[in-house]
Amino acid sequence: MIALKRAFGSTLFMTALLVMIAGCDRQEGPAEQAGKGVDQAMHTAGEKIESAGESIQDTASGEQR
User: Fold this and answer.
1) Whole-number Å distance between alpha carbons of 44 and 50
2) Is the dihedral of CA 2, 4, 5, 7 positive or negative?
3) C-alpha–C-alpha distance, residues 40 and 58, integer Å
4) 44 in a domain, yes or no?
5) Would you list the DSSP string of 44-58?
6) For residues 65 and 13, which has the higher predicted lDDT (pLDDT)?
7) pLDDT tens for residues 12-63?
8) Distance CA 26, CA 54 (A)
């Protein structure tokens, strides 16, 4: 009886593991693609804002000399 429970538990664990692995291989949906596009746009905007801030600091420090 214990061997049967152990075999059932092992089978259940392997089935759950296979289901989790199969779920990881899905292709991106439209919402995920849009989210990645927004992330990229925010990253690009952040870089440009940082560059503008550095330019302002360089200009300000040049005027103080």
Assistant:
1) 10
2) positive
3) 27
4) yes
5) HHHHHHHHHHHHHHH
6) 13
7) 888 888 877 776 666 788 898 999 999 999 999 999 999 999 999 888 888 5
8) 42
Alpha-carbon distance of 8 to 23, in angstroms, equals 23
Q: Model pTM?
A: 0.50
The predicted pLDDT at position 63 comes to 58
Which residue is associated with the tokens 């089978």? 11
Spatial distance between the Cα atoms of 46 and 51, rounded to a whole number of angstroms: 9
Domain residue limits at 61: 34-65
Domains of the chain: total: 1
Q: Say which residue the tokens 């990253």 belong to.
A: 43
Is 29 within the bounds of a domain?
A: no
pLDDT of residue 5: 78
| Domain assignment of residue 28, yes or no | no
